[in-house]
Write a structure and sequence with these properties.
Elements: E1 18-25, E2 35-42, E3 47-51, H1 58-64, E4 71-78, E5 81-82, H2 88-97, E6 98-102, H3 113-119, H4 136-148, H5 164-177, E7 182-186, H6 194-211, E8 215-218, H7 222-227, E9 231-236, E10 239-245, H8 261-264
Parallel strand pairs: 3-8, 3-9, 6-7, 7-8
Antiparallel strand pairs: 1-2, 1-4, 4-5, 9-10
Helix pairs in contact: 3-5, 4-5, 5-6
The chain binds adenosine-5'-triphosphate and magnesium ion.
């Protein structure tokens, strides 16, 4: 029986939402380059899986999009804004436009699921009304987002009472509450079991399509990247060594991402 066809890959149109050109990063003047000449464009609607061994620069690449990594040279633009030129209020605005999801969910455990999602709206001015409570429109949206991620029935539960997979769905809803222009998910399934990992990655990919935003997701499991992305980018020692449409790649094509220095003759 033939393998089921992959859903059609969204074809990028227009300008990239995120543009990274010849990006190099070093954390200190005398430290080695952590990213070395990285080029990457992220398009609305597309999910890009970022692979690489520990220390290859995945988190640093994500941090460079929100001004949390020092851009040593090159250009990073998010929604047209040049990240290295932003300061103060502009940088806070950029951060409000980028939804982030982390391995450890980063919820406030003793607060309700609904309140955790509402906290995403605090990125925008005027989220609280004069009584210091969340606006009714935001509460409605938070409920809708919890429905979108499939856990509206948990809205009033304490966040810490949820399973890891459920907590990650709350974190995704919180990120969407920001109405993000792009979502960064740094190892979002590293603490989850295999079945739950599929559910969460499926959700992220469908959000990219439905909300028409780019999603960049770092992963350590090659089959998950091949199943839940439209493009794969492989970092090795701060350089992109593999990049392509997911439908054109397999585990063998991605092997160079995990090659040792000796195997590739890299004596940096
Ligand atoms: N704030 C920092 N200051 C100095 N060096 C840093 C800093 N953050 C990261 N590094 C260094 O940059 C390199 C890349 O780290 P990074 O966290 O980006 O890797 P990663 O691919 O996300 O790894 P992992 O898979 O373990 O999360 C590492 O050598 C790390 O020690
Ligand atoms: Mg990391």
């Amino acid at each position: 029986m033939p393998a089921p066809a992959r859903p059609a890959r969204p074809v990028p149109t227009g300008d990239p939402r995120v543009h990274i050109q010849d990006l190099s990063v070093r954390y200190a003047a005398d430290a080695p380059l952590v990213l070395d000449g990285v080029d990457l464009d992220l398009y609305a609607g597309q999910t890009v899986a970022l692979l690489g061994s520990s220390g290859s620069g995945k988190s640093t690449l994500m941090k460079s999009l929100t001004g949390f990594a020092p851009i040593t040279s090159g250009v990073v633009t998010v929604d047209g804004a040049d990240v290295s030129a932003l300061t103060g209020r502009q940088l806070r605005h950029l951060r409000s436009q980028v939804g982030q999801v982390f391995q450890q969910f980063n919820l406030i455990g003793r607060l309700s699921v609904l309140t955790n999602v509402l906290l995403g709206s605090l990125h925008h001015a005027g989220a609280l009304n004069m009584l210091g409570t969340f606006r009714a429109a935001d509460r409605r949206r938070a409920y809708e987002l919890l429905e979108r991620v499939g856990i509206a029935d948990k809205a009033l539960d304490e966040a810490r009472s949820l399973s890891g997979g459920q907590q990650q769905r709350v974190a995704i809803a919180r990120a969407l509450m920001q109405r993000p222009r792009c979502v960064l998910a740094d190892e979002p399934v590293a603490s989850l079991d295999p079945r739950t990992s599929h559910v969460v990655l499926d959700l992220l990919q469908s959000i990219a399509r439905d909300e028409n935003i780019p999603v960049l997701v770092s992963l350590h499991v090659v089959p998950l990247a091949l199943e839940h992305s439209d493009r794969v980018v492989g970092l090795r020692g701060g350089r992109i060594v593999v990049e392509g449409a997911t439908s054109d790649l397999d585990a063998e094509a991605l092997a160079p991402v995990y090659a040792t220095d000796a195997e590739v003759g890299d004596d940096r």
